[in-house]
Structure formats: C-alpha cells, structure tokens
Amino acid sequence: MGWLWRRVASWHELPMMTSQRPSVRQPIFNIPGVVLAFLAVLVGIHLLREWVLTNAGDLRVLYDYALIPARWSVAFLPDGATEVVNALSDGNAADSRWQLFLLERILRDQQSGLWTAVTHALLHGSWTHLFFNAVWLVAFGSPLARRWGAARFLVFCVVTALMGALTCYLMQPYSLIPTIGASGIVSGLFGASPWYVFDKGGAIESNLRLPRFTFKGMLRNHTTLVFLVFWFVSNYATATLPEVFTGENVNIAWQVHIGGFLAGFVLFPLIDDRLPNA
C-alpha cells in the first residue's frame, strides 16, 4: 500500500507544484480591445459604404473625408487654384473628368478639409485594401497597444495618420487624386517596431516589457537593419508594381507610407516610458 499512498500524496502536491510554475500558454487570438475596436470601426465604415450608401452617397463620403491635397492648396496658397489647374492640364487625361469634378466642388465649397488629415485613414478602396491593413494592424498594433495601453496607442495612430497626410501633401500639393487608407498608421507601427521588437532577437511578445533600444544599439542590431532595408525596398516595389503585390491596378500612396514610418520612428521614444538601459 506504500506505493498507493505515495501516489495519493503526489496528487495532493500537484496543484501546489504547478501553481508555482509560470504559465507559458498564450491564447491563440490575443488582440487588445482598442485594436479590435479600431478594426470594427474600419470594417463598419466599409460595410456602410458597400451595402448602404448609393454611388452618389459614397462619392460624397470620399469627397468629404478622403485626403485631396489640392483642397489644402486652394484654401491656403495665394495662387493655389491656378497651380492646381496647371498641374491638371499637365497630367494624364484618362481621369480628367473625375478630377475636374473635384476641382469644381473644391472651388465652389471653399472648405479646407483639414479634418481629412485623419479621416482619410478610416476609408479603404476595397476589401483587399482593408484586409492587408487589418492584418498589419493586428500583427504590429497589438503588441504596441499592450505595451502602452489604449490612450497612448490612439494618440500614436492619430499622429502617424496626420504626418502621413502632411507628407503626401508636401510632396504632391496640387494633386486631385483622393488618398484613403490606414497605411500611414500601419507604416507608423512599422517605424516604431525597431525600438523594441528585435531586442535580443526574441519574439515580439517576450520583448513587450523590456527597455527600448538606444539609437546606437538599434544600429548595431543586424535584424533591425535588415528589417529597415526590407521595409523601404518592399514599399518601393509595391509603389512601382502595385498589380504584382496587391492584384489591383491602383495608385499606392507611398508618400503616406514614408511620412507615417518616419513619424512612428520619431514618436516612439517620446511616448514610451521604458527607458533604455545605460
């Protein structure tokens, strides 16, 4: 009976023994609430545009909330309207009717549309466009939201969207092509990741509570440098060959990507409270 008693005793001690071991199991889908809420807003807006609004209503939404750089130039530059007309006449005439329609509305409404610096990130051109942005938001937005919390994460999203829009405007101030999508925010998340994701070569989840890199430490990290090169090369490739990478013949707003990435890179150490090791 001694063997039975020892087995019963071991069962009695098992809960205490296991409770002292750190849990390593993680849920398959561990998405913070703020990221889920953001995705729900993006999907809800696209569903509304696809299933509820008429074509005319959807065009109105695009006009009111998409980023149209020419609108800012007309509103704030003395010769903005003239420059927009000149830029239109020098461009490809394939979509001139749509651009002339936008120019007519801009001149008639005389609204700056400053809010579009942020609202453009809530609109997407297709389900494919939305899907890819959602995947990257989950992959890189979730760890950042867990590291910072909802408030700082949302501030980060607003600022990166705004800076992506500003970069697009500065590089194409007279463009009448509407720009939409959360790509500026996604690029900002990529820009923030070198500060903490690749520390010690560990997985993202294991690095959430670690101090961030110093700038010199980042430059000495081989994985970080490879990531930076890959990001810029892949963005150049998608901008020049959109059909190959997206399956759609669309204009890729690479200026928004660059602005969002640089904003995320600069903003991360200003927001993050886990100081680097000396």
Question: What are the key terms here?
Answer:
single chain; 278 residues; mainly alpha; 14 helices; 0% strand; globular; disordered N terminus
Describe this structure in words.
By secondary structure, the chain is mainly α. The chain has 14 helices and no strands. α8 (127-148) crosses α9 (150-171) and α9 (150-171) crosses α10. Mean pLDDT is 81; it is low at 1-28.
**What is the N-to-C succession of helices and strands?**
HHHHHHHHHHHHHH
Question: What share of residues is helical?
Answer: 55-70%
Report strand %: under 5%
Ends apart, CA distance between termini: 61 Å
What global shape is seen? globular
User: What is the tally of beta strands?
Assistant: 0
Radius of gyration: 24 Å
Total count of helical runs of at least 4 residues: 14
Sketch the major β-sheet: none
The poorly predicted ranges are 1-28
Please state the oligomeric state of the protein chains shown: single chain
Structural class: mainly alpha
Mean pLDDT: 81
Topology:
Layout: H1 2-19, H2 33-52, H3 55-65, H4 69-76, H5 80-90, H6 96-109, H7 116-119, H8 127-148, H9 150-171, H10 183-192, H11 215-219, H12 222-240, H13 242-246, H14 254-271
Helix pairs in contact: 2-8, 4-5, 5-6, 8-9, 8-10, 9-10, 9-14, 10-14
Give a short overview:
The protein is mostly helical and 278 residues long. It is built from 14 helices and no strands.
